[in-house]
From TrEMBL:
Its EC number is 1.5.1.3. Residues 5-156 form the DHFR domain. InterPro entries: DHFR, DHFR-like_dom_sf, DHFR_dom. GO terms for biological process: dihydrofolate metabolic process; folic acid metabolic process; one-carbon metabolic process; tetrahydrofolate biosynthetic process. It comes from the Eukaryota. GO terms for molecular function: dihydrofolate reductase activity; NADP binding. Pathway: Cofactor biosynthesis; tetrahydrofolate biosynthesis; 5,6,7,8-tetrahydrofolate from 7,8-dihydrofolate: step 1/1. This is dihydrofolate reductase. Keywords: NADP, One-carbon metabolism, Oxidoreductase. It catalyses: (6S)-5,6,7,8-tetrahydrofolate + NADP(+) = 7,8-dihydrofolate + NADPH + H(+). Transmembrane segments: none annotated. One of its GO terms (cellular component) is mitochondrion.
Length: 156
């Protein structure tokens, strides 16, 4: 059975920072346009299918409860510590390979169009750089630099 396409999306600061104190490092008003873009990209699927969003536990917990699960998408939470499916999530996996195995099951695979990795840093570090390398597409948000000790190193 063919693997569904895997995509990565992240809001990245100029120095590769992606978060600040458990949240996004931008003022919420500047995120409205970006969040609409995120929703549009991660939700757009072929007719009769849905996309899956794969995220770490901390990313899941950073989403306000009223927005969980992310609508019109299959939500997969990765965690090495959780033993039960978080309320609202559709699947729980121990790692990215386990998530792909669950999403590749015949019945589910046919319902999925694209798989989106949406964070956080542990997921990006463990999987994205080894899969995609350091190629980045620039977004439209202008954000301040973060302190150098929060710089994200993309070297494996």
């Amino acid at each position: 059975m063919a693997q569904n396409p895997v995509n990565v999306i992240a809001a990245v600061l100029p120095n590769m920072g992606i978060g600040w104190k458990g949240g996004l490092p931008w003022h919420s008003k500047s995120l409205v346009k970006e969040m609409k873009h995120f929703t549009r990209l991660t939700s757009a699927a072929a007719e009769g299918k849905q996309n899956a969003v794969v995220m770490g536990r901390k990313t899941w917990e950073s989403i306000p409860e009223k927005f969980r699960p992310l609508r019109n998408r299959i939500n997969v939470v990765l965690s090495r510590t959780l033993s039960h499916l978080p309320l609202g999530a559709h699947y729980l996996a121990t790692d990215f390979s386990n998530a792909l195995a669950q999403l590749s099951e015949s019945e589910l695979c046919c319902r999925i169009d694209h798989i989106w990795i949406i964070g956080g840093s542990s997921i990006y570090k463990a999987h994205c750089w080894s899969i995609f390398g350091p190629e980045l597409l620039s977004g439209s948000i202008v954000a301040p630099s973060m302190p150098s000790h929060l710089h994200y190193s993309h070297h494996a």
